[in-house]
């Protein structure tokens, strides 16, 4: 089946989420009386993943996963207060968000082959579209989130819903993302092709369709 579209993940694939978080925490944590040391930043990532996983299962809504993250850091249990505190972090995070350096070349390679581009991302619709706009990619193509689909990766239904809305068949779409569980295995379960973007060499190293930079994507198109 001929490839017709490339479906990109956003955070960790097109946008440097981890570096943006570190920059944001370095600026924000001192304003709430905390030290932005490596242990605290690592803890932030750990707590975020725990509660985002609960949200991906649709057990809580997006604002609640943010509140639970702050509760784990010892902030008060008042929802309005937690929302205000998280808002301070969010300003820093959104202003720090930036694209990886290999994105422009990869998108050019995709365009040169006449392939369509879309984004499937596990984030709130408004925030993720703002990130793309900040990176100069507001017109990249359709963007789908759990807000649009009613489900999140790694549910294969998120990929099937995306492809159906895109007007393509699963076998005509290549999923590209940094999470092997969310962007590769789940995509294949839905019938898509998939490439794992393993930027940091964490594996699995036996993945046959593995790249360490988007500069290598052209070999899989």
TrEMBL record:
GO terms for molecular function: hydrolase activity. Keywords: Hydrolase. Gene3D superfamilies: 1.20.120.1600, HAD superfamily/HAD-like (3.40.50.1000). InterPro entries: HAD-like_sf (IPR036412), HAD-SF_hydro_IA (IPR006439), HAD_sf (IPR023214), S-2-haloacid_dehalogenase (IPR051540). The keyword Zinc does not apply. The keyword Glycoprotein does not apply. Signal peptide: none annotated. PANTHER family: HALOACID DEHALOGENASE, TYPE II (AFU_ORTHOLOGUE AFUA_2G07750)-RELATED (PTHR43316:SF3), HYDROLASE, HALOACID DELAHOGENASE-RELATED (PTHR43316). This is Haloacid dehalogenase. It comes from Actinoplanes awajinensis subsp. mycoplanecinus.
């Amino acid at each position: 089946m001929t490839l017709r579209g490339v479906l990109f993940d956003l955070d960790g694939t097109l946008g440097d989420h981890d570096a943006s978080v570190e920059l944001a925490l370095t600026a924000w944590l001192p304003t709430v009386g905390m030290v932005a040391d490596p242990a605290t930043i690592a803890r932030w990532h750990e707590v975020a993943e725990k509660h985002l996983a609960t949200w991906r299962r649709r057990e809580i809504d997006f604002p609640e996963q943010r509140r639970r993250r702050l509760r784990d850091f010892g902030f008060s249990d008042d929802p309005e207060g937690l929302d205000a505190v998280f808002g301070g972090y969010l300003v820093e995070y959104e202003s720090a968000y930036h694209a990886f350096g290999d994105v422009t070349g990869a998108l050019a390679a995709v365009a040169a082959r006449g392939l369509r581009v879309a984004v499937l991302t596990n984030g709130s619709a408004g925030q993720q579209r703002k990130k793309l706009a900040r990176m100069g990619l507001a017109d990249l193509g359709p963007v789908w989130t759990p807000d649009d689909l009613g489900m999140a990766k790694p549910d294969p239904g998120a990929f099937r819903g995306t492809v159906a809305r895109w007007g393509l068949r699963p076998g005509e779409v290549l999923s590209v993302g940094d999470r092997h569980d969310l962007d590769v295995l789940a995509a294949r379960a839905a019938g898509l092709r998939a490439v794992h973007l393993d930027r940091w060499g964490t594996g699995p190293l036996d993945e046959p369709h593995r790249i360490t930079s988007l500069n290598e994507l052209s070999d899989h198109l």
